[in-house]
## 1
Amino acid sequence: MQMKTASVVAVSASVGLSIHKGKTKVLKFKEENSNPITLDGETLEDVEAFTYLGIIIDEEAGSDADVKARIGRARVAFLQFKNIWNS
């Protein structure tokens, strides 16, 4: 994974793009390789889950966390209409 990361950095730099080390996170689906991923000598933060395009992605590659979050948001929206429906 380190080699692929270095390759992405090199290709990005060749077209004038840079990768923000503070915003870049690592999510490992399989813990076979526990070596840290580095970017220009700095170790990237390992995370258990993150949100991408509004969808929660976790290390189990499941959707439980995302479904629970969506149900919670729907519940909040539904409860906002409670006064209207009860009148």
Note: The mean pLDDT is 85.
## 2
Amino acid sequence: MSAIAYADFSCPMCYLASLRVDRLRATGRATPDWRAIEHRPRLPLTGLRLGPAAHRLRDRELAAVARLAESGEELPSGSPALLPHTGAAVVAYAEAVGAGVADQVRSLLFRAYWLEGDDIGDPEVLRHLLPPAFATGRATGDPVRDFGYAVTSQRGPVTTAAYRRIRDWQCDWLALGAPLALTLTTDDLTTDDLTTGAAALAALRTSPMEELRDAS
């Protein structure tokens, strides 16, 4: 069995989880199969501009996650004013998996939103952001390989393989019935080895498979 992490790019706990996965990779340890999902698929395609009260609530959520961070894990002091529709970001990541640049694009998307405040739900933003990462990959489709064109103007995937990944990731995550965006499980896709939220984040401090076995 191998571990699987489901995560949404607009979730602060998922951002911290991504930082932990980067640390595991840097030390040569096993990492989960990262699968991008949409936690709020009914948001407007252009995202949701947060009012003062909603923005304060979002900042408190980020601050609560920041208290779980360890040395070397730095989260921003405040949240972006826009809550993006993450569909286009999921598409970009799904294409990145096929191109062999999943880890680079995952980190790039999280940083673009949480550190730069970019609207990662906007295909035009992604067209400027992604080409350098895709240029190092092995994409077989000419638009993806040559131009980093991973998301259509309608926020859809370029390749059929990416479309299938997106569909399967979302369906599998929904089938688990997990209430939170950050979900850690195993590739048998049962709820026996399911952790979410802070427990999933804690499991990523070391080997996620070891933590899942200990919890079961």
Note: The chain has one domain: 3-215.
## 3
Amino acid sequence: MAEREALPTMEEEDEEVVAEIEEEKIVELPNQAFWVMVHTLIAAGSWIAMLVVVTLFHPLVVPVAVTTALSFTVPFVVGNIFNRFKQNDMGPQLWLVAFIWFMGIVLWVLDMPTGPNECYHCDASQKIFLTFASFTSDSGLIDGQGRLVGTWPTVALIGYAIGSKMALKSKDA
């Protein structure tokens, strides 16, 4: 009977395994945070480089759709190439950074007062749509730079995350 009590029960073993797994996850947190920061800087850097290159050509007008497509495509390619050479699971998680960034900017825009030439008589959905998503008109909020501050960085981070994820999948195959 004493031998039976000395042996750990199945529940105790499960709790020990769960505790070990959680401890391993905690040890990896600084490394994961570092790689999220690295991937974010690479994605933002590739997007900024794309904007600089487009600006150097001195175009009179660059359509919003073209800039949006380039904001997705350039970081997508960079993320795909980077993750082919440096396999890392944190690259695909950049969509979370994009979501947090966009939600912060959306809250800022929603808190802004309206007035003449600044989305006068707009409700919340009109403020968001005209500031970030409309290809033909602008809300006038954030000095008309809603796409530059909110939409394009978000699209760039999401593009990088998708490119990174595709590189991880192709490496596994």
Note: Residues 53 and 59 are 11 Å apart (CA to CA).
